[in-house]
Each structure stands twice: as structure tokens, then as C-alpha cells.
What does this fold into?
Amino acid sequence: MAALLAGDKMADRAVPPTGFTARLTVFTAAAMAFLAVFALALSLATGRLADRWAEELARTSTLRISAPEGQQEAQTRAALSVLETTPGISAARALSEEETRALLEPWFGPDLPVETLPIPQLIEIVEAGEGYDATGLRARLQAEVPGAVLDDHTRWREPLVDAAGRLRALGVFALLLIAGSTGAMITLAAQAALAANEQVIRVLRLVGAQDSYIARAFVRRFTLRALTGALAGTAAGMLGIFLLPEADAAGGFLTGLGFRGAGWLLPLLIPPLAALVAFAATRSAALRVLRAAS
Amino acid sequence: MIELENVAYSYGGGELFSDLDLSLQPGSFHFLTGPSGAGKTTLLKLCYGELVATAGDVRLFGDDVRGMDRDKVALARRRIGVVHQDCRFLDHLPVAENIALPLTVSGRSSEGSDIDDLMAWVGLTRQADQLPPELSGGERQRAALARAVIMSPEVIIADEPTGNIDWEMSQRLLALLVELNRMGKAVLIATHDLTLIRAAKAQVQARVLRLKDRRLVAAGADL
Ligand SMILES: Nc1ncnc2c1ncn2[C@@H]1O[C@H](COP(=O)(O)OP(=O)(O)OP(=O)(O)O)[C@@H](O)[C@H]1O
Ligand SMILES: [Mg+2]
It folds into this structure.
């Protein structure tokens, strides 16, 4: 393929330039590359999201203790001892006032008078291995620590993790669809070009040109066009993503759509892949047409 | 080099000719005559593998055409220079590049070849940068001849090469063909031009074949 791109000027000239198939190919490649950048960003971002949620959040849960004044500390101790004897829990720790304040700060601001408010005591539970039996734990807590509510993130996050995983799969599927339709469009354009150049092909054959030579003239042209278009489309797509407004981590899903670090290198694979798709599509179209027109 | 044995051809209707034998050997010089529509062009196409005989065997440089794939036919064509009756060119390329086309498609560079001499010889130096549609009929035929001989092929097949050119130019074309023939190349020319045949017979041992009533026969001694 390197040799193909280095090219044979004369072989290129042997086939006259064809306006509309050229524009169609460049435009298709550009549009598809643009879409591919977003599909890639989507599947990377959802992948990150799914990983993070699944990884971090499923492994911790919180116990909330809202007891009447005076019983808070006793209940907290009771809860901790229950947790310590529950299989599947590797650690349980009561959050300090500062930690609680830090947790609430994004919602209520730094000046929240935690001391004077009936803020529940939070206990962070770190799961071990397969995790614990939430139903059993709830039953025990109900008996021994009446003010405790087990906030089990896993349960409500599970469908989200699932959805994020599916979104990632959809992104990958979209990438495959984009590659497939690029190939189909370029095949059509190449076939149109071959049909328009029937006379040229006949003359080339009469002077002893082999199929591979004739095919190469078309293949090279379409590969270069696809590469050009895809470069432009990818650049535009990456710029679009780069210009997405920056937001802090709390922004969540939408602003997480960008590429991170080395992730910026991934969309750079799109133009060479587009060229590869064009190469394969044109080559098979050309050889098929040439075989049929013998 | 090119051998036809018991060859018949039909475009789907009746047979144009049958039981036809022809052998082009190094140094042979053949004329092919016959009424219009007798099948001269068809016979030439069999000789360079553009058509495949409906019966009988055609061998190009020892290989049966029926057993050759397109790539092999393409290779054989590089050893056969053909001047087609309708002189087809690549209309978007200048005349000089068209003449060099056989070199180009076989991966040889036209640098160092005597394309300029050849262009001068067929009198097309001035037209080198023109496009084929801008040429006169005779200029097209001269360009076609130049393209046919640029690879110095072993066999030269010409279909009505003097159809559109004046007597003086046709004498020059003939002189070139005779010269190539003396170098050992086989020449086969389909023509109606009796003066051309007579002029050639004065210079080389030429056999004159006549395609008539579905048979290929030696023409009378009057030619
Ligand atoms: N592609 C084709 N399909 C069907 N019939 C054809 C085809 N080409 C030629 N023919 C017919 O075959 C016959 C022989 O044609 P050909 O061109 O070989 O004649 P020719 O001897 O070269 O004539 P001319 O002297 O006019 O050039 C003609 O009747 C022609 O109509
Ligand atoms: Mg004819």
C-alpha cells in the first residue's frame, strides 16, 4: 500500500479525472470520518463511565444512621460491630464530621453548620470479594440498630452500569456501520467511475495492460480521495470535541464526551482506516468489473 | 509465432468463415484482402486474442488462446503491435503519451526510447501535445502505427493502415513496415488498397490472402 501511495504518475493519468465520483468519495469519507470521531468519543466515554461506576461504586455502600439526639453514638457503635461480623465486608468506618461536610459541600456550600443540623451519621462500607448479603444485613440491622438505613449503591446503579455498557457497544456498532457504509458508498462511486471509463479500459487492454494495472489507477485514486476526505472529517470532528465546553467532574456524562490523554491519538486511526476501506472496496469493485468485461 | 488451425468464427449467427489456416512466422509478410464484411477485421482480432475462435485452435507464441487468462493475453499483446481500423486512443492524453502508452502499461519508462524519432518519422512532431480528437483521420492512423511499433513487437498487425492517408504517406508507412519486416518481424496487413499491395510486392516477398465466401485463399497472380 505504501508503494500504491507513492504512485505511478502515468498510471494515474491513464484514467481521466471524473468529477462527480471524486467529489462523492471525498465528501462521503469526510462525513463518515466526522461521525466516526463522535461514535468513537461516545464509546470511549461510556466505556469510562461504565468502568468507573462498576469499579468504584459497586464496591462501597453507605449506612446512614438517623437516631434521636443522644442515641447517635451508641447506635453507630452497634452498627459498626454488626458490620464487623458480617461476611463479605472488609471494612466499615464511621465518617468524621469534616468528611461529611465535604460530602455535602457541593450541594449546600462550605458554610453549612453541620453541628447544629440533624445530619445523619454516615458509615462507609467497603465490600470484599463477592460482596455481602444485603437482605440478611438489613434484617440484622433492623433488629439491633433501629435508626440505620443501608444505602446500597449497587442496586440502583446496576441498570446504569448496564446502560453505559450497552451504550459503549452501540458506539462500537455505529463505528462498524460507518465503516461498512463508507465501503458501500465508495464501491458505488468506483463502479460508476469504471463504467464511465469503459472506453479507456478497452484501449488500455488493447495496448497490453493487465487487470492489476488498470485496477491500480482506480484504486490509487479512490484511496487518496478517501484519505483526504477522512483527514478533513476527522480534523473537524476532533476540533468539535475539543471545543466542547469544559465542565468539572460533577458535570457527569455529557461533558465526559471528550478524549482523555492518549485517547486523542485514537481518532487519528480513522483516516488510515478509511483509506484501507477505500482500498479494499475499490480494488474488489475494479477487479470484479474487469473480470466481467473481458 | 501466431498460428491458426481449422479456425471458424461466428458472432452468433452463421459462421463468418471456417476451416481457416494461417501461420505468421518471423520475417513473413502477409496481406489480407476481401470484400467489406467478409471478416477481415474479425480474423485479425483472432490473431491478437481479442476474440476467441468458435472452432479450431489459435496459438499465440505457442500458447493456446483458450487456455490463456487475461493477464497472459495482455503479455502476448505486448509482443504484437496492432493498428486498429478505428484507431482508438485515450482522448484525454496528448498524442505523444498515447503513442508511449504500450511502454507505460508494461511498466517501462519512455525515457531513452526513440519516441521523438518515431514521432518525427510519422510526421507528428508538431502534433505531439495535441489531443487525439484534434487529429485528422490520416494523423490518427499515423499515430496508431507509431503506437503499434513503439515496443518493437515481434508481430505487426494493421487493419486498413492506409485508409485515410495520401499516397506519399502510405508509401512511407509501407517503407517502415518493410523495414521492420526485414528485421525479422512478421507483418499482417488487411487492406483494400491494391496499389499498396503492388508497391509492397516490389520490395518484399509478400503473400496475398483473400477472404471470400467463408474461405481464406491465396489471391491470384495478378496481385
Ligand atoms: N461485434 C459484432 N457483433 C456481431 N456482428 C459483428 C460484430 N463485428 C462484426 N460483425 C459482423 O461480422 C462481419 C464481418 O465484419 P468485419 O469487421 O470482420 O469485416 P471486414 O472484412 O473487416 O470489413 P471491412 O472491410 O468493411 O472492414 C460483418 O458482417 C459485421 O457486420
Ligand atoms: Mg475491417
User: Anything to note?
Assistant: The mean pLDDT of chain B is 87. Chain B has two domains: 1-79+156-223, 87-152.
